[in-house]
Amino acid sequence: MDIKGTYDVEHMSLKSGMEHESWPLDEIDPKKAKFPCCLVWTPFPVVSWLAPFMGHVGICREDGAILDFSGSNFVSVDNFAYGAAARYLQLDRDQCCFPRNRAGHTCRHGFMHTEHGTAITWDDALRASMSTYETKTYNIFTCNCLSFVANCLNRACYAGSMDWNMLRVAALILFKGHWIDWKSVVRSFLPFVLVLFLGVLLVGWPFLLGLLSFFLLLIGWYVICTYCVKNVLEC
User: Fold this and answer.
1) Cβ-based neighbour number of residue 115 at 10 Å
2) Are 98 and 121 in contact (CB under 8 A)?
3) Where does the sequence pass through the membrane (predicted)?
4) What is the pTM of this model?
């Protein structure tokens, strides 16, 4: 075994990672669907008509290509499922922990981070999570696009946290995300407004009570399973 050769390869890899991490990002370009180091969100067909806060989420590489867990054993690359992005939120790579060795953690979760899996660059974290999710079965309630993004953020220990989950990812993009343009706002909310209007017109106020119950059940499911029965949402 060529020990020196192995060392040289590892040394070059680490050096390359250090250089790559410092590369400036290109500008966000919605027309070309390029969102460097961003989270992106788009409404679901039918589901978002009833619950406009529900949607499909992806995470983007440094070159702006969107990665999204959109089906069993499949992570799409640069082909965002369910249409163009409506919201985006650019994340700061400097808030990630990319240790070069066991002693190189900048986060407070050294051992836990190592056990979960670390990365040396942003793209490396996404590649590792992508490989993991290409062996998983998709389920909208337990193993979905949000859990994929949460796995990426945990692997990067983004914002010094290893507690990223579906709820936290959803809240991050929904409350801090930026709309692409006014057309994205219309595309996201117009179907819900139409369903709401027709529901009240045809059914009356009981429709609103039913819709509110649906909201509470949906949110309650994720809250209870995330914070009370955590193993349910493990995938």
Assistant:
1) 10
2) yes
3) 185-205, 211-229
4) 0.86
